[in-house]
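Hi Q.,

Before the meeting this afternoon, I wanted you to have the calcium ion prediction in hand. No need to reply - just skim if you have a minute. The sequence and ligand are here:
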Amino acid sequence: MNDLSVLVVEDDASVRNLMTMTLHAHQYRYRTAEDGESAILALTSHSPDVVLLDLGLPDMDGVDIIRRLRTWSDMPVIVISARSDDADKITALDAGADDYLTKPFSVDELLARLRVVQRRLARLLPDNEPVFTNGALEIDYGAAEVRMAGRVIALTPNEYKLLCLFAKNVGRVLTHTYITDRIWGNSLDSDVATLRVFMASLRKKMENEPSQPKLFQTHVGIGYRMNKL
Ligand code: CA
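Predicted structure with the ligand bound:
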Protein backbone atom coordinates (compact mmCIF):
# COMPACT_ATOMS: atom_id res chain seq x y z
CA MET A 1 0.00 0.00 0.00
CA ASN A 2 1.23 3.45 -0.92
CA ASP A 3 1.23 5.80 2.05
CA LEU A 4 0.09 8.86 0.11
CA SER A 5 -3.61 9.73 0.25
CA VAL A 6 -4.94 11.69 -2.71
CA LEU A 7 -8.06 13.76 -3.14
CA VAL A 8 -9.26 13.84 -6.76
CA VAL A 9 -11.45 16.87 -7.50
CA GLU A 10 -12.92 16.47 -10.97
CA ASP A 11 -16.45 16.81 -12.31
CA ASP A 12 -15.80 15.00 -15.60
CA ALA A 13 -16.52 11.33 -14.88
CA SER A 14 -14.25 9.97 -17.62
CA VAL A 15 -11.23 11.97 -16.44
CA ARG A 16 -12.03 11.14 -12.83
CA ASN A 17 -12.17 7.43 -13.68
CA LEU A 18 -8.86 7.60 -15.50
CA MET A 19 -7.28 9.20 -12.43
CA THR A 20 -8.78 6.83 -9.90
CA MET A 21 -7.89 3.78 -12.01
CA THR A 22 -4.32 5.05 -12.23
CA LEU A 23 -4.17 5.73 -8.50
CA HIS A 24 -5.71 2.37 -7.72
CA ALA A 25 -3.26 0.54 -10.01
CA HIS A 26 -0.35 2.20 -8.19
CA GLN A 27 -1.85 1.53 -4.80
CA TYR A 28 -2.49 5.10 -3.79
CA ARG A 29 -5.30 5.73 -1.37
CA TYR A 30 -7.81 8.19 -2.76
CA ARG A 31 -11.14 9.93 -2.38
CA THR A 32 -13.04 11.83 -5.01
CA ALA A 33 -15.08 15.01 -5.09
CA GLU A 34 -17.19 16.12 -8.04
CA ASP A 35 -17.67 19.76 -7.11
CA GLY A 36 -16.14 22.54 -5.04
CA GLU A 37 -18.37 22.20 -1.99
CA SER A 38 -17.68 18.51 -1.53
CA ALA A 39 -13.98 19.15 -2.23
CA ILE A 40 -13.80 21.66 0.62
CA LEU A 41 -15.69 19.28 2.89
CA ALA A 42 -13.26 16.47 2.02
CA LEU A 43 -10.27 18.77 2.56
CA THR A 44 -11.41 19.82 6.01
CA SER A 45 -12.65 16.45 7.21
CA HIS A 46 -10.07 14.07 5.73
CA SER A 47 -7.00 16.25 5.12
CA PRO A 48 -5.43 14.24 2.29
CA ASP A 49 -1.68 14.41 1.54
CA VAL A 50 -2.15 15.85 -1.93
CA VAL A 51 -4.97 17.25 -4.07
CA LEU A 52 -5.41 16.74 -7.81
CA LEU A 53 -7.60 19.66 -8.73
CA ASP A 54 -9.61 20.50 -11.82
CA LEU A 55 -10.24 24.24 -12.22
CA GLY A 56 -13.53 24.23 -14.10
CA LEU A 57 -15.94 22.87 -11.51
CA PRO A 58 -19.73 23.22 -11.69
CA ASP A 59 -20.15 25.31 -8.53
CA MET A 60 -16.84 27.19 -8.16
CA ASP A 61 -13.50 27.90 -9.72
CA GLY A 62 -10.70 25.61 -8.58
CA VAL A 63 -8.50 28.66 -8.01
CA ASP A 64 -10.88 29.76 -5.25
CA ILE A 65 -10.50 26.35 -3.62
CA ILE A 66 -6.72 26.81 -3.62
CA ARG A 67 -7.05 30.28 -2.09
CA ARG A 68 -9.35 28.99 0.64
CA LEU A 69 -7.17 25.95 1.32
CA ARG A 70 -4.08 28.15 1.65
CA THR A 71 -5.63 30.05 4.56
CA TRP A 72 -5.20 26.96 6.71
CA SER A 73 -2.97 24.43 4.94
CA ASP A 74 0.22 23.93 2.91
CA MET A 75 -1.15 20.69 1.48
CA PRO A 76 0.32 20.13 -2.01
CA VAL A 77 -2.07 20.91 -4.87
CA ILE A 78 -1.50 19.71 -8.42
CA VAL A 79 -3.82 21.46 -10.84
CA ILE A 80 -5.00 19.36 -13.78
CA SER A 81 -6.80 21.64 -16.16
CA ALA A 82 -7.78 22.13 -19.78
CA ARG A 83 -6.81 25.79 -19.37
CA SER A 84 -3.44 25.95 -21.04
CA ASP A 85 -2.69 29.70 -21.18
CA ASP A 86 0.30 30.95 -19.23
CA ALA A 87 -2.02 33.48 -17.56
CA ASP A 88 -4.19 30.66 -16.17
CA LYS A 89 -1.17 28.73 -14.96
CA ILE A 90 0.22 31.84 -13.29
CA THR A 91 -3.11 32.57 -11.57
CA ALA A 92 -3.27 29.04 -10.16
CA LEU A 93 0.40 28.95 -9.14
CA ASP A 94 0.16 32.41 -7.54
CA ALA A 95 -2.90 31.26 -5.59
CA GLY A 96 -0.68 28.53 -4.14
CA ALA A 97 -0.84 25.55 -6.48
CA ASP A 98 2.33 23.47 -6.42
CA ASP A 99 2.25 22.19 -9.95
CA TYR A 100 0.21 22.32 -13.12
CA LEU A 101 -0.67 19.63 -15.66
CA THR A 102 -2.55 20.48 -18.82
CA LYS A 103 -5.27 18.17 -20.13
CA PRO A 104 -5.00 15.85 -21.91
CA PHE A 105 -2.28 14.71 -19.51
CA SER A 106 -0.16 11.59 -19.63
CA VAL A 107 -0.64 9.10 -16.83
CA ASP A 108 3.13 8.71 -16.53
CA GLU A 109 3.51 12.43 -16.03
CA LEU A 110 0.83 12.45 -13.36
CA LEU A 111 2.61 9.63 -11.53
CA ALA A 112 5.93 11.46 -11.84
CA ARG A 113 4.43 14.61 -10.29
CA LEU A 114 2.96 12.55 -7.46
CA ARG A 115 6.39 11.05 -6.78
CA VAL A 116 7.86 14.55 -6.54
CA VAL A 117 5.22 15.44 -3.94
CA GLN A 118 5.90 12.21 -2.10
CA ARG A 119 9.64 12.88 -1.92
CA ARG A 120 9.01 16.43 -0.77
CA LEU A 121 6.67 15.28 1.99
CA ALA A 122 9.12 12.58 3.06
CA ARG A 123 11.82 15.20 3.36
CA LEU A 124 9.63 17.48 5.44
CA LEU A 125 8.98 14.83 8.07
CA PRO A 126 12.06 15.25 10.26
CA ASP A 127 11.28 18.89 10.88
CA ASN A 128 13.94 21.59 10.76
CA GLU A 129 16.47 19.36 9.05
CA PRO A 130 19.76 21.21 9.77
CA VAL A 131 21.29 20.36 6.40
CA PHE A 132 19.35 20.34 3.15
CA THR A 133 20.69 18.06 0.42
CA ASN A 134 19.71 17.72 -3.20
CA GLY A 135 22.21 15.73 -5.27
CA ALA A 136 25.59 17.41 -4.81
CA LEU A 137 23.99 20.51 -3.28
CA GLU A 138 24.10 20.98 0.48
CA ILE A 139 22.75 23.89 2.48
CA ASP A 140 23.88 24.00 6.07
CA TYR A 141 21.21 26.24 7.58
CA GLY A 142 22.97 26.61 10.93
CA ALA A 143 26.21 27.86 9.37
CA ALA A 144 24.39 29.54 6.44
CA GLU A 145 26.87 27.72 4.24
CA VAL A 146 26.23 26.35 0.77
CA ARG A 147 28.31 23.56 -0.72
CA MET A 148 28.33 21.99 -4.15
CA ALA A 149 30.07 18.58 -4.20
CA GLY A 150 31.80 19.60 -0.97
CA ARG A 151 33.07 22.92 -2.34
CA VAL A 152 31.84 26.02 -0.46
CA ILE A 153 29.96 28.45 -2.69
CA ALA A 154 30.04 32.12 -1.73
CA LEU A 155 26.58 33.62 -2.12
CA THR A 156 25.30 37.12 -1.44
CA PRO A 157 22.55 37.41 1.20
CA ASN A 158 19.87 37.75 -1.49
CA GLU A 159 21.20 34.78 -3.46
CA TYR A 160 21.20 32.72 -0.27
CA LYS A 161 17.61 33.74 0.50
CA LEU A 162 16.60 32.82 -3.04
CA LEU A 163 18.35 29.45 -2.87
CA CYS A 164 16.68 28.63 0.47
CA LEU A 165 13.27 29.51 -0.99
CA PHE A 166 13.88 27.05 -3.84
CA ALA A 167 15.18 24.42 -1.43
CA LYS A 168 11.98 24.70 0.59
CA ASN A 169 10.02 24.09 -2.61
CA VAL A 170 12.02 21.48 -4.55
CA GLY A 171 10.12 20.21 -7.57
CA ARG A 172 7.62 23.05 -7.38
CA VAL A 173 7.28 25.78 -10.01
CA LEU A 174 7.58 29.15 -8.28
CA THR A 175 6.14 32.08 -10.20
CA HIS A 176 8.05 35.34 -10.56
CA THR A 177 5.51 37.05 -8.30
CA TYR A 178 5.71 34.33 -5.65
CA ILE A 179 9.49 34.66 -5.54
CA THR A 180 9.75 38.44 -5.59
CA ASP A 181 7.03 38.73 -2.91
CA ARG A 182 9.05 36.52 -0.62
CA ILE A 183 12.50 37.89 -1.36
CA TRP A 184 11.75 41.61 -1.66
CA GLY A 185 8.30 41.78 -0.13
CA ASN A 186 6.70 43.23 -3.23
CA SER A 187 6.34 42.40 -6.88
CA LEU A 188 6.95 45.31 -9.19
CA ASP A 189 7.55 44.49 -12.82
CA SER A 190 11.13 45.69 -12.42
CA ASP A 191 11.72 42.98 -9.83
CA VAL A 192 11.24 40.29 -12.46
CA ALA A 193 14.22 41.75 -14.33
CA THR A 194 16.20 41.87 -11.09
CA LEU A 195 15.21 38.29 -10.36
CA ARG A 196 16.51 37.24 -13.78
CA VAL A 197 19.88 38.78 -12.88
CA PHE A 198 19.97 36.94 -9.55
CA MET A 199 19.04 33.67 -11.25
CA ALA A 200 21.81 34.10 -13.81
CA SER A 201 24.31 34.70 -11.05
CA LEU A 202 23.05 31.74 -8.97
CA ARG A 203 23.34 29.50 -12.01
CA LYS A 204 26.83 30.73 -12.75
CA LYS A 205 27.88 29.84 -9.22
CA MET A 206 25.98 26.57 -8.89
CA GLU A 207 25.55 24.92 -12.27
CA ASN A 208 28.35 23.03 -14.01
CA GLU A 209 27.04 24.26 -17.36
CA PRO A 210 25.14 27.51 -16.70
CA SER A 211 23.94 27.47 -20.32
CA GLN A 212 22.39 24.02 -19.74
CA PRO A 213 21.05 24.32 -16.22
CA LYS A 214 20.13 21.11 -14.40
CA LEU A 215 19.38 22.50 -10.95
CA PHE A 216 17.21 25.47 -11.90
CA GLN A 217 14.67 25.02 -14.66
CA THR A 218 13.16 28.08 -16.36
CA HIS A 219 9.46 28.11 -17.15
CA VAL A 220 9.38 30.90 -19.71
CA GLY A 221 6.92 33.63 -18.78
CA ILE A 222 6.01 31.86 -15.52
CA GLY A 223 8.93 31.32 -13.17
CA TYR A 224 11.52 28.79 -12.04
CA ARG A 225 11.73 25.37 -10.46
CA MET A 226 14.54 23.71 -8.51
CA ASN A 227 14.73 20.20 -9.89
CA LYS A 228 15.23 17.22 -7.66
CA LEU A 229 18.71 16.02 -8.62
CA1 CA B 1 -14.21 20.38 -15.22
